[in-house]
Amino acid sequence: FDGVYVRSHGVRVGGPNPGDVNVFSGNDRYGLYVQYDAVGTIIENNLFGTDPSGSFAVTSPTRASNSYLVRLRSTHCIMRGNVLAGGRYGMLMDSTSAHHNLLEGNLSGLDASGTYPIPHEVYGLQLTGNGENEIRDNLVVARESIGMYVYGAAMTNNLIEANHFGLDATGINM
Fold first, then answer.
1. Which of 23, 83, 112, 169 has the most CB atoms at less than 10 Å from its CB?
2. What span, in angstroms and rounded, lies between the C-alpha atoms of 95 and 129?
């Protein structure tokens, strides 16, 4: 069972207002899957892997070993202000079509307040797609693995700046 699968241009998932929040929890493989042809998708202020308060993890007992809360395979997408917590993996950006995306102001492996750890089992963010992406101002906590994993020959000209790995919103080491 997956949450939402997006294959259309210009889709908005969530939004800037409190009433726009979606909760993606208890999924077996993906909470949100944004396919290559979903150009310009905006993913904003959603809760992935938590209860509606953003305080506790909600997982699936049949979760696949390669499950991601969010899988982004498209271009010119914005992922901003989301909480990704308690998943096997937080977010995967892969595919040669995953370029010119912005990941900004997300909490990965933390509760919605940014102060309580709800770590992922493996990676917080995994980037294996293409170049020209911006990853900035994110807080990322991983359990006993890697906060952000970037690899692949095509992963060139990515801007990774002002992120905090292993720290909560107050700067305390998690």
1. 83
2. 4
Q: How many CA atoms lie within 13 A of 28 on its CB side?
A: 4
| One-letter amino acid of 150 | V
Give yes or no for a contact between 69 and 31, defined as CB atoms under 8 angstroms apart: yes
Q: In terms of C-beta density within 10 A (0-12 exposed, 13-18 middle, 19 or more buried), how is residue 40 classed?
A: middle
In the sheet with 83-84, reading across from the earlier edge strand, the strands are: 23-24, 47-48, 83-84, 107-108, 139-140, 164-165
DSSP summary character for residue 173: B
| Of the candidates 64, 66, 60, 106, the residue with the CA atom closest to the CA atom of residue 86 | 60
Residue 142 in tokens? 């991983």
- Report the distance separating Cα 1 and Cα 42, nearest Å: 23
Location of structure tokens 């990941």: 103
Q: Splitting the chain (174 residues) into consecutive groups of 10 residues, what average pLDDT does each group show? A: 90 95 92 95 97 93 81 96 93 89 95 91 86 93 80 88 82 69
